[in-house]
Amino acid sequence: MAEQGRRKVGIIGSGLIGRSFAMIFASGGYKVTLFDLEPDQVSKAKADIQTQLGSLEREGLLRGSLSVQQQFDLITGVTDLATCVKDAFFVLECVPERLDIKRSVWSQVDPLVTDDVILSSSTSALLPSAISEGLRHKDRFVICHPTNPPFYAPLVEVVPSQWTRADVVQTTMELLREVGQVPVLVKKEVAGFVLNRLQFAIMGEAWRLVRDGVISAGDLDKVMSSGLGTRYAFIGPWETAYLNAEGMDSYVERYADMIFDIQKHQESAEKMALGPTLDAIKTDMEAVAGPISDLQTRRQWRDNRLAALAKLKVEMAAADQKAGPSK
Ligand SMILES: NC(=O)c1ccc[n+]([C@@H]2O[C@H](COP(=O)([O-])OP(=O)(O)OC[C@H]3O[C@@H](n4cnc5c(N)ncnc54)[C@H](O)[C@@H]3O)[C@@H](O)[C@H]2O)c1
């Protein structure tokens, strides 16, 4: 754990993701400066952070050894970009998902920082080479794509470009681990990185199954929430396969033909569009999650469950660690 106030992280953009990262770094004892184009947004972010830190404490999910007040005091809202990035060893940009906005921010930051800084973006889908091309510090640029909400779903995809230095990637992974996130390395630039490629592959198949009248949208969601998803909260598809046979060779010997026969029936991409398939999905979603006018109630319900699962996982990881390798 970092000593309180040891080093500084500069965060640009104080929306949903910027404020979450501010809390995450403060939990590790880092000083955080938070900047936004809209000064009002920073004040709102600070108020929201205080509320969220209180909730995390009540849920037993407050990270690190510092109190809510100590963590909150480490986060300073600032009104200019230069102050935000000055003396920061890690600068994280969390502005809207538009290449022109991100490139404009980085062209302003680039001349302000020293040669030992790490520059990072939380982009969901823009490629690191596209954002960092032309920057003097492009070899110090790496993407940290979080999962929302980052406190409950700690995965971060770390995506370097072909010119990112190996030590920048390594330090970024270590930093994320230190503050309680779960970084994975995406070794090559690919559209959608990994999480969204998997998510959209599932969504594509889910669309076709509803479109073809195989299953209702509500029941399809149950296949995930009461079937695949319960397992995937703890183990991924590869460990599932490993455990479901006597290891990988045995799994492939037993199931590869069956899997391939089914995969051959899975069509290529179809763009989702307005029409009868979407109407059927909308009807089911209104029945399951309520009307659009009251989505906040269902979002709160979802977040409570994610918080409970996150707490369970933290407790189980601590128990596993205590039990040692024989668990
Ligand atoms: N929301 C998610 O679920 C999620 C998940 C993973 C990654 N991301 C990515 O994180 C990034 C931020 O997303 P978000 O959901 O926090 O967006 P958001 O709209 O909540 O926040 C963006 C903030 O950036 C500010 N801003 C706009 N232009 C700016 C500029 N030039 N300089 C400084 N601040 C500026 C806005 O005022 C706003 O406060 C995006 O690239 C997004 O794709 C979002």
UniProtKB/TrEMBL annotation:
Residues 8-188 form the 3-hydroxyacyl-CoA dehydrogenase NAD binding domain. PROSITE patterns: 3HCDH (PS00067). The keyword Oxidoreductase applies. GO terms for biological process: fatty acid metabolic process. InterPro entries: 3-OHacyl-CoA_DH_CS, 3-OHacyl-CoA_DH_NAD-bd, 3HC_DH_C, 6-PGluconate_DH-like_C_sf, 6PGD_dom2, NAD(P)-bd_dom_sf. GO terms for molecular function: L-gulonate 3-dehydrogenase activity; NAD+ binding. Residues 192-247 form the 3-hydroxyacyl-CoA dehydrogenase C-terminal domain. Pfam families: 3HCDH, 3HCDH_N. Keywords: Oxidoreductase. It comes from the Eukaryota. Belongs to the 3-hydroxyacyl-CoA dehydrogenase family. PANTHER family: 3-HYDROXYACYL-COA DEHYDROGENASE FAMILY PROTEIN, LAMBDA-CRYSTALLIN HOMOLOG. This is 3-hydroxyacyl-CoA dehydrogenase. It comes from Littorina saxatilis. The lineage of its organism: Eukaryota, Metazoa, Spiralia, Lophotrochozoa, Mollusca.
